[in-house]
TrEMBL record:
Species name: Streptomyces atratus
Family per record: Belongs to the anti-sigma-factor antagonist family.
Protein name per UniProt: Anti-sigma factor antagonist
NCBIfam families: ant_ant_sig (TIGR00377)
PROSITE patterns associated with the record: STAS
Domain annotation STAS: ranges: 33-118, 173-263
SUPFAM superfamilies given in the database record: SpoIIaa-like
GO molecular function: anti-sigma factor antagonist activity
Top-level taxonomic group: Bacteria
PANTHER family, per the entry: ANTI-SIGMA FACTOR ANTAGONIST TM_1081-RELATED, ANTI-SIGMA FACTOR ANTAGONIST TM_1081-RELATED-RELATED
Length: 272
């Protein structure tokens, strides 16, 4: 069985990236996912940022196939665009639901439905709405280019297309200080940031509630085949992770650099 990827321009600058199969029961796996990744990278680099990926010929996808779809979504989001999926297979829909990706992607039954929805949301807007959207995306890009973005007591920085550094800005993580950090981590994952380095060098004290926020974040991230690394310098903080037995679960480092390199290797494995 062979899969073929093609691109077709639709109205209003919408591009359909179609995955066709010469048989039934096609699987988007490590044999064919690289071709789809190549096509998505090329269309985004060409400035086509309103995309529909037609998977109606696909029965199911493996981890590599899902990773390519997520990577395509992140690329187009980073440039201010959007990406929708056309999925007809119940197995494929079940997999997207099981991994939580049904909350990340817009999923449609047909290409015309997807095109019409994207046209309404991204094209058929008033001049003022388009101007507002463009200005908002420009502000987001400037924030990323300038580096650190504030979120309450904490900051985060997109170090690359895949990896985000979160710096915890409080000296203790407990029942009182955890909720804002939990919200930040959840928001980042919901926006497709699946590789996080969390810098805990400012932390003097952490209790079980504080540790729990990272366990919850890791579960969310692993559902998207991502990774989470911690930067810990204080022995008292590291001791808490040892007591609970989580030093085997979380890769921990003394400084940010090695943590980023560690996740970078994970990203490379996912994209290969």
């Amino acid at each position: 069985m062979q899969l073929k990827v093609s691109c077709e321009e639709q109205r209003d600058n919408i591009t359909v990236v179609r995955v066709d199969s010469d048989g039934q029961g096609a699987v988007l796996d490590d044999r064919f996912a690289p071709e789809l990744r190549k096509a998505l990278v090329e269309v985004v680099e060409d400035g086509r940022l309103i995309l529909v990926v037609d998977l109606s010929a696909i029965e199911v996808a493996d981890n590599m196939g899902l990773a390519v779809l997520v990577g395509g979504l992140k690329r187009v989001h980073f440039k201010g665009g959007t990406l929708a999926l056309v999925v007809t297979s119940e197995r494929m829909r079940a997999m997207l639901s099981k991994t939580g990706l049904h909350r990340v992607f817009r999923i449609h039954d047909t290409v015309p439905s997807a095109v019409a929805t994207l046209a309404a949301d991204y094209v058929e807007k008033s001049v003022e709405q388009r101007r507002t959207a463009i200005e908002e995306r420009a502000r987001e890009r400037r924030a990323v280019e300038q580096g650190i973005i504030e979120s309450g007591d904490h900051t985060y920085e997109h170090l690359s297309e895949d990896i985000t550094l979160v710096r915890v800005g409080v000296d203790a993580l407990d029942g009182y200080t955890v909720p804002p950090l939990r919200k930040l981590l959840v928001d980042l994952v919901n926006h497709g940031r699946f590789y996080l380095v969390v810098d805990l060098t400012a932390i003097d004290h952490i209790n079980s509630t504080g540790v729990g926020v990272f366990v919850g974040a890791l579960k969310r991230i692993r559902a998207h085949h991502g990774g989470l690394a911690l930067v810990v310098q204080r022995e008292s903080v590291l001791k808490m992770f040892r007591i609970i037995g989580l030093t085997r679960v979380f890769p921990t480092f003394d400084t940010v650099g090695p943590a980023v390199e560690h996740l970078g290797r994970d990203v490379t494995k996912t994209h290969v």
